Automatic annotation (TrEMBL):
Protein name: HpcH/HpaI aldolase/citrate lyase family protein
Keywords from the UniProt entry: Lyase, Magnesium, Metal-binding
PANTHER family registered for this protein in UniProt: CITRATE LYASE SUBUNIT BETA, LYASE BETA SUBUNIT, PUTATIVE (AFU_ORTHOLOGUE AFUA_4G13030)-RELATED
SUPFAM superfamilies reported for this sequence: Phosphoenolpyruvate/pyruvate domain (SSF51621)
UniProt source species: Streptomyces mesophilus
MF terms (GO), sorted A to Z: lyase activity; magnesium ion binding
The protein's required cofactors: Mg(2+)
Classification lineage: Bacteria, Bacillati, Actinomycetota, Actinomycetes, Kitasatosporales
One GO BP annotation of this record: oxaloacetate metabolic process
Cited Pfam families: C-C_Bond_Lyase (PF15617)
């Protein structure tokens, strides 16, 4: 699979200076963690889940979470588990031929569980179709609650013979509350470091953070405008997202809105990138509260997050379009990492609009080239509007 793989090759060629690279479920963990992109959540109760997965994969989704936790009622869990077993068997049958379109459209699949015992049980019940599973999402993760989940994952991996990743969700009140935050973060850090080879990415549960204080951000505001939430994100990245080799990929919080609502503030999207035919796209984005989403994606990147939890298919393409590396970023990163610059120094950028300082910007450059590997590099005259319009369904 590859990002923007649903776009015709001749169109991709016109968009990308360097096209997104290919990857699959067996690719190295570092590559997969950067490639997750917009991870689309779906309740595990959906009766046509296998077809839904293939449809979304055909539209550019590369990672999905099939949820047995908050998205379904407590009384639905047994039926949802049985449905997963049935739907995975159907997916396995449809994608049995590696050259089939179904196999090409299959995203990375994860199951969000409620309790540790579900992990080995589901891995066993899936049988041979466990080969389609990339791992499990672990809710309300702390050291105390997380260790049993990771031990269960290890057991399931050994029993199934399948590499299985964990994606812990950081959403517990202990992490939010100031008096327990430092100890909770330290415990999480110890736990994920111990199981580093199995932890693909850390996910932020901002909805649960807001719930602890009876808050809900409106579509005019991002998670970073809610200061109590922004402070937790900053502390998580501070301890768990470092670029010194000890950190993990931390993904952005969910954007809750996908319907038109009355606006209280003026639109946040400026007009200039949308001049010409793309003005219609700008209007549509504003009407569907997507301008707030785009701003939050930009703030995710600025605050050290990569990828995003999504609950609606319409959010996927904006996340991916804004994850593409610009030609300017790519030029800067390449200049900074030139072998002859290994000793440091300062240089004017190729675009002659900034100074690139080799040593302080090295980690940024390395991360930028990793993102370029999976999301590609746009041509100099291509921006996110062109990427959005090219990726929209015809």
């Amino acid at each position: 699979m590859r990002h923007f793989g649903h776009i015709a090759p001749e169109i991709r060629k016109g968009l990308f200076h360097q096209e997104p690279g290919e990857f699959d479920a067996d690719s190295p963990a570092g590559l997969l963690s950067a490639a997750l992109g917009a991870t689309l959540y779906s309740p595990a109760t959906r009766p046509r889940l296998a077809q839904d997965i293939l449809k979304q994969g055909g539209r550019g989704v590369v990672s999905m979470v099939l949820c047995l936790e908050d998205s379904i009622d407590d009384a639905e869990v047994d039926g949802a588990e049985a449905n997963l077993v049935t739907q995975f068997a159907e997916l396995a049958a449809l994608s049995a031929d590696p050259g089939s379109q179904a196999a090409a459209d299959l995203p990375l699949l994860f199951i969000r569980v409620r309790k540790p015992s579900q992990i080995p049980d589901l891995a066993r019940r899936l049988g041979s179709s466990v080969s389609l599973l990339s791992g499990f999402v672990l809710p309300k993760f702390t050291e105390e609650r997380g260790v049993p989940f990771l031990e269960a994952l290890t057991a399931a991996e050994l029993a199934s013979g399948r590499r299985l990743f964990a994606m812990p969700v950081l959403e517990s009140p202990e992490l939010l509350h100031l008096e327990s935050r430092a100890d909770t973060l330290a415990g999480i850090s110890r736990t994920v470091d111990k199981y580093r080879d199995r932890v693909l990415a850390l996910r932020l549960g901002v909805t649960d953070f807001c719930s602890a204080y009876g808050l809900r951000r409106p579509p005019d505001m991002t998670a970073y405008d809610v200061h109590i939430v922004a402070s937790v994100i900053a502390d998580v990245v501070n301890m768990l997202g470092r670029a010194d080799g000890t950190g993990f990929t931390v993904t952005g919080p969910v954007w809750e809105y996908f319907r038109h609502q009355e606006r209280m503030f003026k639109p946040q999207l400026r007009s200039s990138p949308f001049l010409g035919r793309a003005e219609e796209l700008r209007t549509a984005l504003i009407e569907h509260d997507m301008d707030g989403l785009l701003r939050e994606i930009a703030l995710d990147r600025a605050n050290g997050l990569l990828g995003k939890t999504c609950i609606h298919p319409s959010h996927v393409l904006p996340v991916h379009a804004m994850s593409v590396v610009s030609h300017e970023e790519f030029s800067d990163a390449q200049d900074i990492l030139r072998p002859e610059k290994g000793g440091g120094g300062v240089m004017r950028s190729s675009y002659t609009n900034k100074m690139n300082e080799v040593k302080p910007h090295r980690a940024w450059a390395e991360r930028t080239l990793q993102r370029a590997q999976v999301f590609g590099v746009a041509h100099a005259d291509v921006g996110f509007v062109e990427l959005l319009t090219a990726g929209l369904p015809g």
